[in-house]
Amino acid sequence: MIVSRLTVLAGAAAILVACTAEGPRGADAVPVAFDGAYASGAARIAHGARLSDVLGCTSCHGVGLTGGNYADDPDGELIFASNLTRSIEGWSDGEVEALLRTGVHPRRDQLYYMPSKSLQRLSAADMGALIAYLRALEPTGRDWPAPREGAGMQALVRMGVLDTSRGAVEAYRLNPAPGMGEELALGRYVASVTCAECHGPDLRGQSPGAPGFQHMDAYSAEELSRLLEDGVTRGGDAHGMMALVARREMSALTDDERAAVVAYVRALAAAE
Ligand code: HEC
Ligand code: HEC
Q1: Does the C-beta of 99 come closer than 6 Å to ligand 1?
Q2: Atom 37 of ligand 2: nearest residue by CA position
Q3: What count of other Cβ atoms lies within 10 Å of the Cβ of residue 74?
Q4: Which of 7, 20, 57, 147 is the most core-located residue (most Cβ within 10 A)?
Q5: Ligand 1: does its nearest atom lie under 6 Å from the Cβ of 103?
Q6: What is the 250 CA–ligand 2 centroid distance (Å)?
Q7: Least distant ligand from the CA of 265
Q8: Can you identify the CATH homologous superfamily of domain 176-271?
């Protein structure tokens, strides 16, 4: 079983119950992207592999991206994380990209829990490297059943534990993370495609429990950097969603990307 971000979220939802890309910099400039996005050959595939950690693909689909049971409920089996080493065989790159950016599945009506809302902000170069990496994976493991539609699924969607992948795409498109100038463009980009998944489209916070970046003025650059590297908060805690995300995802940021996102978060906090 994959100890999932869903498991953590389901816990939070049970407690809360009812709670529930940056474009070209200038006319000729290269669009903002993660470090290494413009590599070619094997280095481009390696960049896609790193992105699969940074963007949480491995966090939800498992380290080998072979997917599996996604809930802490062995009898429920309402939803599985797909086996990405097998599932996109026969799909065009355009179909994979459309699924990632719009949450629309090319072969069935509904798709749940894919964070297309923030993935739509991925630069073209990063998207290309990610798909190239998926294509390079050796097909292995088994296919998993499609989600079991019905009352159980609807209840999870109502509680905000699961969402339809296309649900928040429009809201995220309409509410970009604030621009803070050229210097902070990389930090804004990294935050837009990673942190925004949980901290809200414009990083002003989102339930369940992810605080707005405008309230993070208590964090020094060193404290933020440590949080992103190993999940330890300034209070010394290392548990909860942020610890999981830091260890599995944000620890794969380059030093440069981490410094950029820290500078951007601090600028947002200082602007309020
Ligand atoms: C928050 C958890 C989560 C994250 C992060 C995530 N996925 Fe998914 N993904 C899922 C789940 C769950 C499904 C199955 C949804 C369904 O069956 O409706 C899925 C389905 C898919 C599918 C459809 C496969 C098929 O056979 O139908 C693709 C492709 C996919 N994910 C790619 C990715 C990639 C690439 C990334 C990283 C950029 C990623 N996912 C990140 C949870 C996640
Ligand atoms: C998968 C969801 C998710 C992602 C992605 C995520 N966070 Fe969080 N973050 C949370 C949640 C939920 C909390 C509330 C505390 C907790 O549960 O850990 C939180 C708390 C925080 C805190 C406050 C920690 C404290 O309690 O003192 C900071 C700072 C923070 N996040 C920064 C970031 C930054 C910067 C990024 C992107 C680089 C990011 N987060 C990405 C979910 C996420």
Answers
A1: yes
A2: 195
A3: 8
A4: 57
A5: no
A6: 10
A7: 2
A8: Cytochrome c-like domain (1.10.760.10)
Distance (Å, whole) CA 91 – CA 187:
33
Tens-digit pLDDT profile for the chain (272 aa)?
Answer: 344 565 555 444 443 333 334 444 455 678 999 999 999 999 999 999 999 999 999 999 999 999 988 765 555 678 899 999 999 999 999 999 999 999 999 999 999 999 999 999 999 999 999 999 999 999 999 999 888 888 888 888 888 888 899 999 999 999 999 999 999 999 999 999 999 999 999 999 997 789 999 999 999 999 999 999 999 999 999 888 999 999 999 999 999 999 999 999 999 999 97
pTM higher than the cut 0.85: yes
Using the mean position of ligand 1's atoms as its centre, give its distance from the Cα of residue 218 in Å: 35
State the residue for tokens 């990307």.
257
| 5-16+35-159 carries CATH number 3.40.50 | no
User: Residue 7 CB: number of other CB atoms within 10 A?
Assistant: 16
Check if 5-16+35-159 and 176-271 are the same fold. yes
Tokens 């209070």, residue located: 235
**Ligand 1 mutation pick, 87, 114, 164, 241, max ligand atoms within 8 A of CB:** 114
- What gap in Å lies between CA 7 and CA 209, rounded to an integer? 15
What the block records as the tokens of 213 is 């970046």
So where are the chain's domains? 5-16+35-159, 176-271
Report CA(60)–ligand 1 centroid distance (Å).
7
